Automatic annotation (TrEMBL):
Belongs to the OmpW/AlkL family. Gene3D superfamilies: 2.40.160.20. This is OmpW family protein. Residues 1-25 form the signal peptide. Keywords: Signal. InterPro entries: OMP/PagP_B-barrel (IPR011250), OMPW (IPR005618). It holds the Pfam family OmpW.
Length: 267
């Protein structure tokens, strides 16, 4: 009996000693592995689509503004007004007498024209036109028998214009401008006529000009342009015969109206 009590007491003491260890084991959090979230795969960069020269793309700049440079090819009509003419005739050393009722008449002409334009600001641009036109020149009046062919001349009239554009960065952009015109006459040929003139010359001249026009963006960097210029230029010319016994002088207010329409490309 005594042995049984000792055995029971040993069992109780052993259980009490093991209880804290079991409790501690139960309270310990099990080890776990946490997987990090996977990053979404990055799509490879796709090459941007090519924007053709005759296409309007998302990257195409609308309208015209500061820093734009354009080259324009146009058909230009030069229409001399011949507002006021005076003609004198005399010997090589004078005196010269006014040929009453006689005026100078210059023919109209159509030629290609090249224009270079740069936008200094969104509203202000500078442009230079380059062309050369050939004109027939005649004297008209009773004193010359109605009409007398004088000859022909080529004219080189570079014109620099400062223009104000009303609607920068818009497809339709009207403008007005002021500038200056310089005129050189070259390849002048006298016509065979009753006065037997064989030499025809003219001096360098120039004058102010005004203009108005509009640019319209067609597609991409292509623009349509329509422009009207009024130039105020006076010509001084003279014709002589072979033996220089006759010299004819003429002053003529050419004042040409210049109308052009063409296609421009912005760089």
């Amino acid at each position: 009996m005594k042995n049984i009590r000792k055995l029971a007491l040993s069992a109780v003491l052993g259980a009490s000693a093991l209880a804290p260890v079991a409790g501690h084991a139960q309270t310990m959090a099990p080890s776990t592995y946490v997987n990090a979230p996977l990053a979404a795969p990055v799509a490879p960069a796709q090459p941007k689509g090519h924007c053709g020269i005759f296409e309007t793309c998302a990257s195409t700049k609308i309208g015209l503004g500061r820093g734009d440079f354009m080259i324009r090819l146009s058909a230009v009509g030069v229409l001399p007004e011949d507002r006021d003419s005076k003609v004198w005739a005399g010997g090589m050393n004078g005196p010269y007498n006014v040929v009453s009722g006689t005026r100078i008449k210059t023919t109209n002409q159509v030629m290609p024209e090249l224009t270079f334009e740069y936008f200094v600001t969104d509203n202000i641009s500078l442009d230079l036109i380059a062309t050369s036109t050939r004109h027939e020149v005649a004297a008209e009046g009773a004193a010359v028998g109605g009409k007398l062919d004088v000859g022909s001349a080529w004219v080189l009239p570079p014109t620099v214009t400062v223009a104000w554009h009303f609607r920068p960065h818009k497809r339709l952009n009207p403008y007005v401008g002021v500038g200056g015109t310089f005129m050189w006459f070259h390849n002048m040929n006298a016509a065979g006529n009753a006065l037997n003139t064989t030499k025809l010359n003219s001096g360098f001249t120039g004058g102010p000009s005004i203009n108005a026009g509009v640019d319209y963006q067609l597609v991409g960097n292509w623009f349509f342009n329509f422009d009207v210029k009024q130039m105020f230029v006076r010509m001084h010319a003279w014709a002589e015969n072979n033996d220089e016994s006759l010299k004819v002088k003429a002053h003529d207010s050419l004042d040409p109206t210049v109308v052009s329409a063409g296609i421009a490309y912005r760089f």
